[in-house]
Amino acid sequence: MQGRIVRIEWAGEDDYDLIASWLKPLSPNAAMTADTREFLTPAKVKAANEDGNVRFFMAVTHDGERVGAVNYRPVNSSGSYSIGGIVGDWQKWSRGYGAEAFGLVIEHLFNGINAHRVEFTTAAYNKETLKILTKGGFVLEGVLRDYHFLDGMYYDRTIWSILREEFEEHAAADAGQFPVIDAIPAEDKEKARELLSKYLANDPPTSLRDFDRRSGRTRSY
């Protein structure tokens, strides 16, 4: 999926080392994602991606630089997903890479796999993510008190979500600046409709045409 400044593409074999390095303990990204005590190996990233527990996508600039990763995983009831992600180099934070990559994966969830609800959780000290969530159509659902420990202090965890109707309203309002790109162009869909209509206009053989004959069949023995 292509955005204005990045595209997202399926994470491949060469990306697992990169993702694990971005989230290594004591890294800026581990602190921002509250994973300072978790040791994530390339093998764990690969296993999660390939068995479907978590789907990883790489955020890639127009010149081919892999600047970050976004992911989603199904949670609880059908149609609900949780998303997460990082921009690998902290010096590239606040450039819009993360916001657009998140937008693309959210668009994929609602328009590609029929999501009903998408959620995101983040620590109350994560300025970069909160800048996205507070203006991206998400709704603050709750606060888990003293959930994270960092720099000698406890911090709350915030829980956000966006429902399908909220996504559609937000997408419609921003359609001029951030149009949703169809996987198959509208003109191709229309051409397919025209071909099917032309075929049916000639009263061709169809499953409906001989319904009476088939429904009236009796066993021959």
Observed structural traits:
221 residues; alpha+beta; seven-stranded mixed beta sheet; 27% strand; Ribosomal_N-acetyltransferase; transferase; GNAT_dom; EC 2.-.-.-; transferase activity
Q: How would a textbook summarize the main sheet? A: 7 strands, mixed
Average pLDDT, rounded to a whole number, is 87
Question: Which structural class do the helices and strands define?
Answer: alpha+beta
Give the termini distance in whole angstroms: 57 Å
* Strand arrangement in the largest pleated sheet: 1-2-3-4-5-7-6
What's the tally of helices?
8
Helix and strand sequence:
EHHHEEEHEHEEHHH
> What value does the Rg take, in angstroms?
23 Å
Principal-axis shape equals elongated
Q: What is the percentage of strand-forming residues?
A: 25-35%
pLDDT below 50 for ≥5 consecutive residues: which ranges?
none
The counted number of beta strands is 7
What report would you give on this structure?
This protein has 221 residues and is α+β, with helices and mostly antiparallel strands. Helices cover 34% and strands 27% of the residues. It contains eight helices and seven strands, in the order E-H-H-H-E-E-E-H-E-H-E-E-H-H-H. It has helices spanning 15-22, 28-32, 42-50, 97-112, 127-133, 164-173, 186-201, 211-215, and strands at 6-10, 55-61, 66-74, 80-87, 117-123, 139-150, 153-163. It has a seven-stranded mixed sheet with strand order 1-2-3-4-5-7-6, with helices on both faces. Helix 1 (15-22) crosses helix 3 (42-50). The longest helix is centred in the middle third of the chain and has 16 residues, at 97-112. The protein is elongated, with a radius of gyration of 23 Å. The termini are far apart. Keywords: Transferase. Residues 6-160 form the N-acetyltransferase domain. GO terms for molecular function: transferase activity.
